[in-house]
Design brief:
The chain has helices at residues 21-30, 80-98, 167-185, 191-201, and strands at 11-18, 37-44, 62-69, 105-108, 112-115, 118-130, 133-142, 208-212, 217-225, 231-234, 240-243, 247-250. With 256 residues, it is α+β, with helices and mostly antiparallel strands. α2 (80-98) crosses α3 (167-185) and α2 (80-98) packs across α4. The radius of gyration is 18 Å and the shape is globular. The strands form two sheets. It has a seven-stranded mixed beta sheet, with helices on both faces. It has a five-stranded antiparallel beta sheet with strand order 11-10-9-8-12, with no helix packed on it. Helices cover 23% and strands 32% of the residues. Bound molecules: biotin (BTN). Biotin binds next to α1, β3, β6 and β7.
Length: 256
């Protein structure tokens, strides 16, 4: 175990290979590990994406999960997706800046980070009760060296954006920014600040979007995030729908 390059209150475990760093964090917690543990793997054999999808995890990219002991109310935990998205975006902007690379990095609801409209990172949050203890695992996949082809939404990597960085450097930047944003969030007492910064950095806010859910599709204006991180969609006629799980698409011209 080492903690070089991470903020002092965190520990880091580096694995050559694991099924999923989210799963490795859960196992560690069951074996008594406390919050503040980062687990990073060079490769994942069963990387998990959002909505039950697979996250292709060949060597070269960052696969990292942070174990947290959560004191906030359970309904506030989904806010952590937005806390983590802001941290990953800031880490990318910092790494770009250090290499004098000028990029456009935006957030896409609910858990994606985009560079030039293409997905470069995704976040997968998991919450578990272990007896009386509530843990949250913040899983982060960041395409450093390569990206998958033929995805529903186009993907990219830091390398493609001209940022040449390995996973070890990337996790240090992500960990530092996530620590900072967690302190802003204050266990959910200051989601207002997170929400505002997220909305400022997000694609499509105030614009017409299509929300594709498992069983239906809706169109309307992407108006806001509610307190649990659901997307507030204002339909023609003024009805507001709070969407918790969906893929969103933008109007032609604002799309990829
Ligand atoms: C998404 O679908 O956008 C979320 C992807 C999250 C992938 C990361 S990689 C590290 C952690 N371990 C996993 O199995 N998934 C997350």
């Amino acid at each position: 175990m080492m903690s070089v390059g991470l903020p002092p209150e965190y520990r880091l475990v580096e694995l050559a290979e694991t099924e999923s760093t989210n799963l490795a964090c859960l196992e560690a917690a069951k074996n008594g590990a406390s919050g503040g543990l980062w687990i990073v793997a060079k490769r994942q054999t069963a990387g998990r994406g959002s909505r039950g999808r697979q996250w292709v995890s060949a060597e070269g990219n960052l696969y990292a999960s942070l174990l947290l002991d959560e004191q906030s109310e359970p309904e506030k935990l989904s806010q952590l997706t937005f806390v983590a998205s802001l941290a990953v975006r800031d880490a990318i902007l910092q790494l770009a800046d250090e290499q004098s690379s000028v990029i456009e990095a935006k957030l896409k609801w609910p858990n994606d980070v985009l560079i030039s409209e293409k997905k470069v990172a995704g976040i997968l949050l998991e919450s578990h009760m272990l007896d009386e203890r509530r843990i949250v695992i913040v899983g982060i996949g960041l395409n450093c060296a390569h990206h998958p082809a033929n995805t529903a939404w186009p993907a990219t990597s830091l390398a493609e954006a001209g940022i040449l960085i390995n996973a070890t450097i990337a996790v240090q930047a992500v960990a530092a920014h996530l620590d900072r944003w967690l302190k802003v969030w204050q266990n959910g007492q200051n989601f207002q600040a997170i929400r505002q910064r997220w909305l400022d950095a997000a694609k499509g806010v105030g614009e017409k979007i299509t929300v594709r859910m498992a069983d239906r599709e809706l169109t309307g204006i992407f108006e806001n995030l509610d307190d649990t991180g659901r997307l507030v969609l204002c339909k023609a006629g003024g009805d507001r729908i709070h969407v918790s799980a969906a893929d969103i698409f933008f109007e032609p011209g604002q799309n990829w």
